[in-house]
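Feature request, filed as a ticket because there's no other form

It would be nice if the structure record came with a short human-readable summary line next to the tokens. Right now we just get the raw output. Example of a typical job, pasted below so the devs can see what we mean:
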Amino acid sequence: MRALMVAFFVLVMIAGSVSFTRLNIEAYPDPVPPLVDIVTQNPGQSAEEIERYITIPIEVDVATAPYLSAMRSISLFGLSDVKLQFTYDLTYEEAEQKVLNRLSQLPQLQNQAQPTISPWSPTGEIYRYQLVGPPGYSVMDLKTLQDWVIARRFRAVPGVIDVTGWGGKTKTFEIQIDRDKLVAYGLTLPQVLQTLNNSNINVGGNTVNIGQQAAVVRGVGLIRSMSDIRNTMLTAANGNPVLLSDIAEIIVGNKPRLGIAGRDEQDDIVQGIVLMRRGQQSLPTIRRVEAEVDKINTSGILPPGVRIERIYDRSDLISLTTHTVLFNLVFGMILVFFVQWLFLGDLRSALIVSSTIPFALSFAISILVLRGESANLLSVGAIDFGLIVDATVIMVENIFRHLAEGAPLNGAAEAAPLRAFGESSRRSFVRRPRSTERSSSPPRSSSSALFHCSR
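Raw output as currently delivered:
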């Protein structure tokens, strides 16, 4: 049934080509079981205190989660990290939900520390960039743009779960109080801090009726600049207001740096990493991130001279992976064809074996798309060569060997497989004439026939 086989071959090739355009291609798979990472911060506490008051209570609370296979934790200064590894019986979303259910029943931790689920994943880093400014632009200003402008826009991109920033200085507003002036005005440090907190809020009032209309009364006190901090009223002395600038100096500073980022010859830069949500497709998410980068650089969102420069994105690795798979497909098909033709000397059998490679790849891609799975260098390379082609080579060579050794077949049954392999293979067979004694002997069993064929 050659026509049926050729039609089926063409149908599978067309389905594979259509599926390839819809296939989610990844550079490498994520075969690990679900891993949930619980991160808790409590500044100022030592590693021993973090272990006693945060890490151990969390471990005790989540230890009863179903399908939990392993639990590892680390306690650092001001930081607790508990990693929970589940079995393959659960998906990541199901494991995360079970952890959240356990954390909701966790008693209040010391200093009201709040455990959070880390968005990091082994295959989540898809785009790395650097924020570049004009000459003289400080890394503090770049870091401020990174935290308050760029990160917020990237998090709004579909498929992105978080943005991690590196390098730069975190901007702070420092109030350096003169203790002599503080005592002279009869104030204390807690009073100053409480007054600042109360002054940095907006409050709502009632309404004022104006004819048939009503106006809403609001008290706007949100601090927006350093001048607002300086003009904060602390108290009144002899009917004169005492402002914060009368007892303190307000300057711009930065938090203590715990690290630094560099690139090439630049020893202090600001960069960021865009993290993809688990289960999302890499290439479509990267395209959306690139479109957002172009929009940020061209729409005037950033100050003049400030731009985002791409350092790396996973599309390069995915492109290289796809090129490697296609190259292996073509090269492997040609190599198998010539090796099969060289050793067997039969053109049609070599074509049958070599055509199995694109057939197997097209069939595998169709199944991957139907199941919603992603393809990568490991899965596609193993499917077309390791699982299908090897078996085809063994079967065709075995059939060819049996036919070439002249298995005892009768009449048309003997000629049919010879015609199937073509004239070239028929000429290579050695057909021995059957003697009268052999033809007059009683019929042999199938086992003896096979033994005669092997001999």
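Something like this underneath would help us a lot:
Residues 409-455 have pLDDT under 50 and may be disordered.
The chain has four domains: 2-25+319-431+445-454, 35-117, 125-170+256-313, 172-254.
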